[in-house]
Amino acid sequence: MHDPAYSDPDVLRLRELHAEIDLATLAAVEQRLLPVNALLGLASPGDDRVGLLAAAGFRVVGIEVPVTGTLGKVVVDVVLARAADGTVLVCEAKSGRGIDDEQARKYGALTVVDVVQQVGITSAVTTLRIGVVYATLALHRDTIAGRLEDLALAVPVAVLGASSRRVGLVVTAPAGVGGHPLAGLFPDDLELPAALPRPLRIDHESPADAVRPLVVAEVTAAMSRRETEVGIRSLTERVCPQSVLFGTGARNRLRGTVDDIARHLPDELSVAVSYLPRSGARDAAVLQLHETPETADPRGRTQKYQALDRRRARRAPVQSDGQFELLDELGLEPAVGPEDDDGAGPVTRHRPAATEEASVDRTELAEVLPSSRSESALRTVVLEAHSDDPPALLSQLDGVTGVTATEDAHLHRLSSPEGEIFADTVDPRFWSLHTRMTDSFVSRMVQPAVQRRRDLDRLWLPTQHLTAAWPDAERTGVHVAFDARGLDPGGATSATLLKLTGREVGGTLALLSRLPDAGQGVLSSVDGVQLRVEDPDSGHVDEAVNRGGTFVARGDSFALHQAFVADVLRRYRTLVETLEERRLAFVPGSDPEGGGELRGDVVSLAFSRPISDLQHWLDELLSSREPFRLWGQPEIDADGVASVEVVDLHVGQRLSIDVTVDGMRLYLPEGTCGNTVVRLVSNLQHRFDNRLTFTEPALQQLLEGGPVGAASAGAWI
Asked: What is the DSSP string of 290-326?
């Protein structure tokens, strides 16, 4: 039975006033979307701070799914299932104080057979049960619970009330009917340690002011990819991926809103775009992009992005008064290119790739490793590449005058005025470039190509991956760099640079990292390590690696060098690919009237210390500058949550983020490269908080350099 307080108008009004105060903080995302976001967030296993339903074993198996029962069809907003005991929850999300009586009766008449068969839920248990859940705003929870009890449904109904950081559950049940599956899961009123996720930003009922930031972000992403036009239909699907689950009427309504916004963009953006309406020659309207910041002088590209949207004036970010080089005199090379230089540097004109074959195989490749200190060290640069034609992409590296095939289909010889490079592309995603040339030439060759191409990136090794490399090796050097003067100029420690060498380097750094003034992990912000790797069967090699994925080596075993590179890359690949498994996808079902499944999960980061000035922090992070290269228009609501549509300018991909002073959530759409997230994490480690963590234990274990289900791989800090 429901609480007698439901019928007490004074108690009801007090509860509503309390909830209205909390509700007033929800500015960045529409309040009516909070109930469905609450269901999705509570069922998200990626954030154990708020994933109460996930912790109880529930997962999202359907969204906006039509199900027909004995009283007719009802479109179920969210379907949750728990495999362990065959429990299925059909959930209706309501933002108002009223309910549809007929709809409620249809929910009450649904059987578990109806839902399992029509949603397509696979169950390994023989006994199944169903529960009905109404999710609503906190201020309407008791009103809706009272109305559901008045209907005298034949089944118990759980009513979930949610605000930004609070949830509460009550159950209405007729006499003689068993309890609800959620009964006792969490109390009448529970304060959460973090704000609820907001994976669904808009829908077909959203006003233009809510849709416009996503449209501008998607157009910006298209510009960064140098696209020349975007169709309104395609733009709508990019802006709202879940629209594939909508019925025809809802999809057309949202497309109309996007179309109206696009009509006004030529007058609102600082670059040349034009809107072409539907006509006899075009079955749908298009937005033509005549100019993008990418076509501007590289030295002014950042400013072009910052001034893109005339309707919003950007704050000028605080300029840092200098940046540290990654590695200096440590046997490792400096960072691959200046990290805060907007220019791509001089671009060398390339000759056509050579087609003749050189008589080189992997046996001869092993001879490039020097054993004497009097010889130039071997440099191996690992790049992430997305190309089906390696020679064509390799020919675009600056200073490369020819690409020659060898006896090995995956080994290519690159010619340049200063020497030769061997490119090993046997790993289709992570290519290794081996050369004896100077680090300055390698930087000039690689970094400009990385900056201007969407299909090429460097590695962004987290601190833990550097310290976990080859656990049994002797540590002979370490380089630490931390510089928070951009993101957090008022922090306790703004900049630190430290180099240690010698046999006791690991223990010394571990001791220093425990000092009280290392609150944000400054002294463990390792960006380069040096080791001596020995193997009784292979030989020895002195190795050094920085967080940009550049390896420097001398020794008597090229095979051991290759094994060392593979050891580092194995951890990195697993982290990147696991993040890509968290990408959100809205998969339509078979019903033409809509419905489908939400796959993926939210990726959450927790900071070990609060952000002192959130607006400045966001302005700097989203300034379009290196090393983050993120564009966005942050607005902070009264609850201290910034929900931002961000464009990764390196790959031209939009993603959504929520940021508070104590953490960040990332909603990764289909197609997002996991390297985007690792790049963000690695740069935050060296520019804000080296002790940040993933809230999902499996991801955190991979960040620490260990496989899922195993202990850390022997990190020495």
From this structure: ---GGGS-GGGHHHHHHTSBTTSPPPPPPPPS----S
Residue among 245, 214, 250, 215 nearest 232 (CA): 215
DSSP 462-527: -HHHHHTSSTTSEEEEEEEEEE-TTT-TTSS--EEEEEEESTTHHHHHHHHTTSTT-TT-GGG-EE
SS3 state at 59: strand
Q: Is 350 exposed, middle or buried (0-12, 13-18, 19+ CB in 10 A)?
A: middle
Dist. CA 401–CA 394, nearest whole Å:
10
| DSSP secondary structure letter of residue 263 | H
CA 74 to chain centre: 34
Report yes or no on 322 lying in a domain: no
CA angle 409–571–661, rounded 5-degree value: 130
CA distance 626 to 639: 30
Residues 589 and 499: their CA atoms lie apart, in Å, by 57
Is the pLDDT score of 317 beyond 50? no
Lowest-confidence pick of 288-297, 424-433, 612-621 = 288-297
Structure tokens at 529: 């390590």
Is residue 659 within 8 Å of 644, Cβ to Cβ? Answer: yes
Indicate if the pLDDT at residue 167 is higher than 90. yes
CA 434 from centroid of its chain's CA atoms: 31
Distance from C-alpha of 16 to C-alpha of 598, rounded to nearest angstrom: 32
Of 417, 440, 458, which residue constitutes the final position of a domain?
458
Element (DSSP H or E) covering residue 559? helix 558-580
Neighbours of 529 (CB within 10 A): 32
Percentage of the chain with pLDDT > 70? 83
Q: Domain with 387 in it: what CATH number? A: 3.30.310
Q: Which domain holds residue 284?
A: 208-306
CA dist 386 and 429 (Å) reads 6
pLDDT in tens, 396-450: 999 899 999 988 999 999 998 888 899 999 999 999 999 988 888 888 889 888 8
Rounded-to-integer distance, Cα 378 and Cα 376, Å: 7
Residues 624, 575 share a domain: no
Neighbours of 319 (CB within 10 A): 12
Instruction: Give the pLDDT of residue 667.
Output: 95
Residue type, 383: L
Cα 107 to Cα 103: distance, rounded to the nearest angstrom: 6
Cis peptide before 277 (omega within 30 of 0): no
Nearest to 452 by CA among 295, 632, 675: 295
pTM of the model: 0.83
Note whether 38 and 144 are same-domain residues: yes
CA distance 368 to 426: 18
Residue 263 near residue 243, CB atoms below 8 Å: no
Would residue 408 count as lying in a domain? yes
Q: Are strands 630-631 and 456-458 parallel, antiparallel or unpaired?
A: unpaired
Does residue 266 sit within a domain? yes
